[in-house]
């Protein structure tokens, strides 16, 4: 009512001001009288609205009182009938209880709001953690929603499938990932249809001209109502594992072959000796030599296998002393000579150089030299040459041994792998049998045990140069020796 009166007064004053401004000659009072024709009806309308609003409020209030009275009449009739004071008291109590209930409800609601804010915060942090884990994973991760649109992906996935993983959200996965990977896309879409909890499949993709194998695990994501809300796929590159397992299989078959061949010779020749098939001393000696050589071959192979695992596990006993590299080379050249002659290959050595002393385990470095020499002979066709030499770099204090052959060489893309365990160059397999262990052992002995460095250069059908560098022994070390 007060508001309505104020509004009317304000309207009336404003109207007078307007008429006064609009140039009425007779002053405020006269202008007011002039304006009454319009102002009075407007004030009446505003007043009427106020009266209606007041009436409505009173009506609501009486309704409320009536309902409280009705409650008392029905639920607490004894209070009304017996004691009017008690009625008032219980009415007050009822209002107080209602007020308490409403205020506790308000507190509950405030608590709920606070809880949901905390929950929102926690779930935001969880999402951030999940994103951090997914983004830092080396495996490719792709998550799609129930409509087969991208929800999330990491850098590895972006690289693998060649898409912009940061700005491709909500794009249909079939548009995002090209037809080269249709097997993967189909697998994802199929999973959204099947709603299988987790499925796994091995997939092969051609990447930069190389066949790569991935272990792909796809899991469906369900919400609280157990309804599918997405599918997450993790792709783990198992190309290397596959290669290693293939290499191991090849190794087992090679080793067993390598072991069987000398064993077969030893058995055959010793049987012939036992059966008296070697009549004369010369034949018998020839048979003994074959048996000895094959036994040595067996021994070398077993030593290679054992030494590799001993060095890897750090269990090998190393006894270093100063030695001349040229002298060690000379000894090993003698060992290899008969094999080279058999194949019609010339082995060229070098004149001893003045100071080529190194602090080494002689047996191990001898094994390095013999492995490089025997490989050079093995992979060089008849009529070729193998040259071994030592260079000394006084400034860098390094001794460098190189073994150069005129053999079959190694394809460019395989050169970097030849020092890996069990690695054999496919193109050269028919040249000679082997285990793929010799060069790995060379690398382990030179780099792990002697702090040196191995190297290789090669050209197919022109030949290869394998070598190693070792630190020169200090003058004090030589004197002590
Ligand atoms: P393997 O027992 O097979 O000879 P290695 O570890 O000694 O094992 O050598 C690994 C591979 O490197 C060989 O299978 C061969 O293909 C290649 N290789 C090693 N030395 C030479 C060489 N001098 N010329 C050409 N290929 C070589």
Give a quick precis of the structure.
Helices cover 58% and strands 18% of the residues.
Provide the fold topology.
Blueprint: H1 2-21, H2 27-75, H3 77-82, H4 84-136, E1 140-145, E2 150-153, H5 155-161, H6 173-176, H7 182-194, E3 198-207, E4 210-222, E5 228-237, H8 239-274, H9 281-313, E6 321-324, H10 325-343, E7 346-348, E8 357-360, H11 362-378, E9 385-393, E10 398-405, H12 412-415, H13 438-449, E11 453-459, E12 463-471, H14 475-480
Parallel strand pairs: 7-9
Antiparallel strand pairs: 1-2, 1-5, 3-4, 4-5, 6-8, 9-10, 10-12, 11-12
Helix pairs in contact: 1-2, 8-9, 9-13, 10-11, 11-13
The structure holds adenosine-5'-diphosphate.
Which CATH class of the largest domain is shown? Alpha Beta
Strand content: 15-25%
Structure summary, number of beta strands: 12
CATH homologous superfamily descriptor of the largest domain: Histidine kinase-like ATPase, C-terminal domain
| Helical segment count | 14
| Overall 3D form | elongated
**What hetero molecules are in the model?**
adenosine-5'-diphosphate
Low-pLDDT segments: none
Strands side by side in the biggest sheet:
2-1-5-4-3
The overall number of domains is 4
Largest sheet: 5 strands, antiparallel
Average pLDDT figure: 85
Q: Please name the CATH architecture of the largest domain.
A: 2-Layer Sandwich
Distance between the termini: 118 Å
Decide which structural class fits the backbone: alpha+beta
Please identify the oligomeric state: single chain
**Per CATH, what is the topology of the largest domain?**
Heat Shock Protein 90
Radius of gyration: 48 Å
Order of helices and strands: HHHHEEHHHEEEHHEHEEHEEHHEEH
The helicity comes to 55-70%
